[in-house]
């Protein structure tokens, strides 16, 4: 059970850090983790996938807002 707690803490830290590259690296590491049950591994990987997707959606929304802010009257200022 200690290993699962360690993995959960690492996933929590990666999600808090909010860097997609580090979350992807941890996804790969978890794929090869034989100490976790299949269900535990899937749960932790799913948490990372959701965080990555949310960051992607947030980035897209920021880009759209930035474009809206730069565009006034149909032209880029």
Characterization of the model:
It comes from Buttiauxella selenatireducens. This is DUF2526 family protein. The protein is 79% helix and 5% strand. The protein is mainly alpha-helical and 77 residues long. The mean pLDDT is 87. It is built from 3 helices and 2 strands; from the N terminus they run H-H-H-E-E. Strands 1-2 form a two-stranded antiparallel sheet. Strand 1 and strand 2 form a beta hairpin. Helix 1 runs antiparallel to helix 2, helix 1 packs parallel to helix 3 and helix 2 packs antiparallel against helix 3. The chain has one domain. The longest helix has 33 residues.
Keywords:
mainly alpha; 2 strands; 77 residues; 5% strand
| Morphology | rod-shaped
Rg, Å, rounded? 18 Å
Please report the distance between the alpha carbons of the first and last residues.
57 Å
Mean pLDDT: 87
- The strand order across the widest sheet is 1-2
Q: Number of helical runs?
A: 3
Order of helices and strands: HHHEE
Structural class: mainly alpha
Helix content: over 70%
Extended strand count: 2
Low-confidence stretches: none
Quickly count the domains: 1
Estimate what percentage of residues fall within beta strands: 5-15%
Largest sheet, in brief, is: 2 strands, antiparallel
Pfam families: DUF2526
Protein name: DUF2526 family protein
InterPro entries: DUF2526
Organism: Buttiauxella selenatireducens
